[in-house]
Amino acid sequence: MGVRVAWIGLGNMGGGMARNLINKGNLGSPLVLYNRTISRADALCNEVGHTKATVVASIVEAVERADLIFTSLSNDDALKDAMEQALQIDVAGKKFVDCSTVHPDVANNVAARVANNGADFVAMPAIDFVKPYITGVIGRRAIEFRDEPVGKAQILKLIANMFILSVNEIVAEGMTFAEKASVDPNKLLELLSVLFGGPYTVYGARMVGGDYHKKEVPVEIALKDARHALHIAEDVGCAIPSLDAAAKNLEAVKDQRGPTADSSSVYGLSRTRNGLSLEN
Ligand SMILES: NC(=O)c1ccc[n+]([C@@H]2O[C@H](COP(=O)([O-])OP(=O)(O)OC[C@H]3O[C@@H](n4cnc5c(N)ncnc54)[C@H](OP(=O)(O)O)[C@@H]3O)[C@@H](O)[C@H]2O)c1
After folding, report:
1. Where is the 3-hydroxyisobutyrate dehydrogenase-like NAD-binding domain positioned along the sequence (predicted)?
2. 181 CA → ligand 1 middle, Å
3. Whole-model pTM?
């Protein structure tokens, strides 16, 4: 029968990664799906077909029915809560792979608890729509931390997110600057795609296209990452003023548009601060 795999948490990231796993992972049995809001699991199962996925009603059932369990959950509390439930049963010999972005201390604590229960815990914070189940399936590439605390992977991920949040901020400011200076923002987008690509183009297109209100990366999730990074930086005595500035603007977006606003709404914030309409 081979390795039985389960996926817990089918949000923006988890849903995409689970879909990739089903389509490209050569799984020997249907992927076991669990999501707190069960309709999301049902929707994915209906999409891929019942020979490729099956929905369960609890975390315990998902863990019971799998040897390899992926999690992709919003934040530290959600992960701690899910793992609390998972560890209610005998998990000896199982492997947990967590794709959420959480504080490294949380990852280290969960890893220790899982190890005490005879199982393995891997922190695999995903940067993007990311070995047999990772490279070319869920993600483009795995950067490994062998024999190091799992929290190290979270620190690397949070530093990567610092780049992403800073790019988001600078693209928003650049687009506003262009419009104020009567330069077509589409031309700036074209330039960014030639010079940099990646998140510059993704966020730039979202802003120029007027999609910066859609929920892709909710500001509350971006803020969670920014706060974790700022706390770690403080702990290790490292100043990261660019992230500090980006975080303050994300806080302002949260006040302006609520916690589920997309983080690229910093564009709307920059526009209104500069006398332009909120929506382009
Ligand atoms: N979005 C991105 O571009 C991105 C990129 C890289 C990494 N990440 C990280 O990936 C993780 C997931 O992000 P996302 O964008 O997929 O978030 P999301 O769309 O908001 O999905 C969050 C998932 O967590 C579940 N959840 C939340 N609280 C829970 C709880 N207390 N118990 C059980 N399930 C709970 C949600 O279930 P419901 O459906 O019931 O709400 C949903 O399945 C986060 O740690 C985020 O920082 C996100």
Report:
1. 151-268
2. 39
3. 0.88
The interaxial angle of helices 151-180 and 219-236, nearest 10 deg, is 120
All domains of the chain, ordered by start, with CATH? Answer: 5-144 (3.40.50.720), 155-273 (1.10.1040.10)
Nearest residue by C-alpha to atom 7 in ligand 1: 126
Q: Is 74 close to ligand 1, i.e. is its CB under 6 Å away?
A: yes
> By CB neighbour count within 10 A (0-12 exposed, 13-18 middle, 19+ buried), where does 124 fall?
buried
Expressed in angstroms and rounded, the spacing between residue 73 Cα and the centre of ligand 1 is 4
pLDDT in tens, 132-185: 566 777 777 888 888 899 999 999 999 999 999 999 999 999 999 999 999 999
